[in-house]
Amino acid sequence: IYHLYKTGSDVTIAQADTAIANISPFNPKTEYEIFGRGGTDFNPVVDYFEDNRTKYSCLIYFTDGEAPAPRNGKSDLLWVLLKDEYRKSSRSKWR
Description:
This protein is α+β, with helices and mostly antiparallel strands. It is built from three helices and six strands, in the order H-E-E-E-H-E-E-H-E. 21% of the residues lie in helices and 26% in strands. The strands form three sheets. Strands 1-2 form a two-stranded antiparallel sheet. A hairpin with a 3-residue loop joins strand 1 and strand 2. The longest helix is centred in the middle third of the chain and has 9 residues. It is globular and about 35 Å long.
């Protein structure tokens, strides 16, 4: 995320589990609180992206992949699947 930001791209972070909990611009100097942590539904974030296509050029979804495929999201969507070891060691806050 940091390296995308360093290219001059505007990066927005959307945190969600079964619903969107927070949407905020990425700032590398900010310590983010993790929201959610529960069941997963990809549809709220994918639908938000599709509804705001004029605002965003693409969606990169970081996930463990443990949810049914979304209804939409047929283009400009990159899935990043995290390893189980990373999820187990992740902290409640990240930068």
